[in-house]
């Protein structure tokens, strides 16, 4: 990474993918022969303690950490103590605003894909839908209809669009969130276990749409599951305020055909997220742009423009090739 | 600052300058009338607790802190807890390498200015001198001679080149450092109180040159006073290793006329500081370059290129103006 | 200009402004004393021959020329012969597309200002109006009404919005253009001399709106006078084709509230001009952006980003500070 | 090239290489199927008239031409007439300055490689050697010795370092240049035909070193053959003046270990070429830098940074998403 050696500690819940990638890296590194030092790219598997060894070691100049806000705080504080650098990509609570002028067909496709794709387990999954009151009735019933027909199943099987949650803990967290949402006045569509008979050990679920009377505490939390909270708005400023009024600041989007609305949403008084899209979902096609978020998302950026800055030292150089010695700020100092 | 309002908390030891600047800012802000919100630029005077209020408040999105490493760690950890941003400019322990090919006259002037100017109380003051053995005898005796003739006195008086230390604590710290250096085998030239009779309440000192047998612990510390530790080298790589082997990473320089040495010093295997100069002192004329340092100096940058990045939010935008909806990573997801 | 000395040859029709500016420059240069060489900024007054002396002289490394396409061709060819550089800002034939979703009030104001301001004698004056058929009746009658009430008069007098043409030649060119347009089937509103009794020696005119059956030859020419050719469209691609189908490529704009239209207009298949605005006239508020145009406008850019490139030399440097000699393309060549 | 289709017209003297590359491109283009339009990359073989068709056609928006200054002038003037763009890379007359502090071994290798490699038929071939008088005797005799041992032969054969000139015209031009140089007082070492018996139809030559009493007219011309003119200097400013005093401005270099000399050479008062290297020949390892030259070399740049600017349109956009209409320069214009 920018010439730095890399140690990769994957989530303890998904070590296999990292091990596969390590094998690929090994082959690549081998091609460079002696030009590539031993251990240039390494994978370590472990839990919290392993991570703590990395953040504690002065030999690790920078830690790029993706995960929960709590983990991010721990990493960030550990690195701060020794003036190491962090690139944090923590929680997201990504919203879409659907304006009256939106292309409803397009919005519909974008919502379903970004709310239920990878079973809502993407950092940029859509979690909150803020719909203008004038378009609410044209959108929500169709959305529920689309949800009803989604094929849940083995993610490796042709045709499956929704696979399982990662484990039973994730399932429990989803259930708990739905319960709280209901207690807050939410009207739940969908949710609950799926394919229990076929896959008794897996945590398949039906994705849920929850129409909320307001943005209660549970809505302001990131639940890593396919729950989509839906809220109504009548005024764009209020919708943006709602969108911004969560601790996380990863991704956001607006569906509108009105250039005044789209540019306003992208302006300094618009979305406060690190990613803001127009007519494309929060887990959009922004590949190539700097990726990361503001506020509790941690402020880090990976990929493209500026990401290299996180990984590199910066140095300001002045070369005096004259035969005189200029002094700072033009000071006179004759000895 | 980049459109952000500013609250300035100066060092509790030097509040008057801040208050003067505040007065100037008030006049400037007044010219903008209602376009400038109330309290756009404010000064608060206080000690550690005042600073803690600022770092604790979520309303303060970013803290740019200049001062000690200990303060920096506290600020950094406090900000990490709430994912606020820091721009830290902490301690420096700035060195100069003098190579055999150096222009001795030029080096001499640069050393004196940067070691004793503002009585060694500049973040970029020269604190360590790493001299090639072949030029040592040509340089050090002349340096001592130059020190002997330096006019110490009221900094507002014409002709004074060395004013007082900021307070008695600073004087004590200097005395203590010299004692330790002597115990470590250092050979001290100069040092000790000056102008005691004329200014009994002020902390005037004679600047000190300390020839050290090696880079002991006290040399690796920043003592905010006019102490210059001198060491010998015979090989450039060893000199660079010595220069880099301190916790701080603010400024550094080399005096050489050899382009192979100068570029090597500026290369990835050269100085690890945020500032590296050639034929110009560490408190050089780098105005216009990004200012700040690596390692325990805290990694922040103020002034010019890139500094604005510290003060601004970043947002990646994708605008889909087509009538199709591209999905992330080209995924197929038909509902 | 980027450290270069400047010789300014204003249009022979307007020397006084240049002479005034020269006086200001003289005062500025004088402040620098001996640091500013004699003749750093000079004004020369003259006709074509004077310009030819400048383009012929090898001492003039770069010519930035603003004026007619014919002049630009002559300058460009003369500079090409000696590999001098040009920055050309030649004719414009700026259009506005008004889409059905446009804010009509805003468009109206923008049209009037940019078509009749400075009596249509601005390089970025609006000369062509391409209006969607569905909004044509809502816009054109109101535009004519606005034209009827415009105060023509001494440009130094309070309240005047339209001053005179620069000379009788300009008046004749306007009359000739209107005649041709009428012969082409154009329906002319306004036009003709104004204030003849009050200012018998000046060339005041009534601004003209000409509804055209198509983009005939006269519409494709730049007539430096307040003539606005109006055409209808029904399909955005056709409107953009019309907008692009002139030799000049300076400025262009669209009035629309539809983000799909605005971004399409700004895309690679949209306007081919050097300036393209949305909801702002062609002589818009783009101060701060690079200024200039494509095609027969000459390709030059002044102001901001990139403009300095026109005025400066560029040099690629490689410093080899190793003790080895790398050869180009890794060639092996042992002697 | 930056999304533009390409028509390649190689030199009429070397069509085969272009045809081979075209075959490769055909294979690449084929992979894109219908996404790549027919004729995306084409090769045309022809002489001057073919080139004139390209420069005359308004369908060819930009011509990047490499070749002689005369050709460049013709292309440039033809493009100027229709405001087409050129990227010109014309003649070079590349020099090396060898300072007293130079690493002689390194300079020697660099001189031989860049003066005789590809038999002096590279745009960046070394043509002029400007040697400090104090190092002249240490360098020139060794250079002659190195020249004596260079293996001339079939460029495809292992061990050959010098192949033939491209044709008999090139041979005649070299002979003519050497004659003139001799008449100007030049002292010639080497030169003349080689391997005539083995390859009667080819134009093999012995590379020539010509010690000149000064920079006469023939030295200021580019002769595309392995002739190296050698001159002496005693003062760096004079050496740089000599280096700059030719019409061409492609590449240049200095061999020195003195940072004051190297940076001076790279400064605004140093080399006026588009490429300037330190301790690396003019046909150096600058791959990755912008490639091209100033003055009669034509000013164009290919490769990396900025080169894309030559191939692309530029557009300044302003989007007004407010409900107000700002006017240029804050003008008040109420209708």
From TrEMBL, chains A, B, C, D:
Q: Which Gene3D superfamilies match?
A: Aldehyde Dehydrogenase, Chain A, domain 1, Aldehyde Dehydrogenase, Chain A, domain 2
**Residue intervals of the Aldehyde dehydrogenase domain:** 2-316
InterPro entries annotated for this entry? Ald_DH/histidinol_DH (IPR016161), Ald_DH_C (IPR016163), Ald_DH_CS_GLU (IPR029510), Ald_DH_N (IPR016162), Aldehyde_DH_dom (IPR015590), ALDH7A1-like (IPR044638)
Keyword entries, A-Z: NAD, Oxidoreductase
- Spell out the coiled coil positions from the record: none
MF terms from GO for this chain are:
aldehyde dehydrogenase (NAD+) activity
Signal peptide: which range, if any?
none
Q: Provide the protein name.
A: aldehyde dehydrogenase (NAD(+))
